[in-house]
Amino acid sequence: MKTTLLFGLTILSGVIISSCSSKEKVIGLRQNIHHDDFEYSVQSIDKTGQIGNLRPHGTFYVVVFQVENHARRVDHRWNNDVAYMTDETGARHDNDAPAQQELNRVKPFDYKKEYVTPAGETETTTLVFDLPKEVRQPYLQVRGSLLMGDVFDGSQFKRTKIKLF
């Protein structure tokens, strides 16, 4: 009994250590960030200097963001803060909610404050980020809490970023 428990703890420790040591991964457009039963991707990106009546402090990055739910039974709840952008300096940039809502007003895309993607379904939204003009290497990353499926791939979703340049 003690040997089985010790063996189990050793295996668990190895999984935890390996989950902390996975390497950064850079992927491209239409490639997926895997997070448990969920896949996140950027389908397209555009840059603009104006959305409706709004002007950015720098440049608006308009990102079509897709969520695929590969679970068999569980809905996936997420919101517009699920993704953020980083740049070559490491600065984080969050979704600009007023710009996103203005974009939905002038070019409707079914904006919601919260999304519930049913098991086996795919859903998209459009996110808007206001990045400084001097940013040359933007990446998109996702937020999320550790789920059971993440233990086995070292929480790779936390270290995967989508190259947007």
Describe the structure.
The N and C termini lie far apart (55 Å). The protein has a single domain, classed as Immunoglobulin-like (Sandwich). The longest helix is centred in the first third of the chain and has 19 residues, at 2-20. The chain is an alpha+beta fold and 165 residues long. A hairpin with a 2-residue loop joins strand 2 (33-35) and strand 3. A five-stranded mixed β-sheet has the order 1-11-10-6-7, with no helix packed on it. 20% of the residues lie in helices and 37% in strands.
Q: Work out the radius of gyration.
A: 18 Å
The parts where pLDDT drops under 50 for at least 5 residues are none
**CATH architectural group:** Sandwich
Which structural class fits the helix and strand makeup?
alpha+beta
Main sheet?
A: 5 strands, mixed
In a nutshell, what does this entry contain?
By secondary structure, the chain is α+β, with helices and mostly antiparallel strands. It is built from 3 helices and 11 strands.
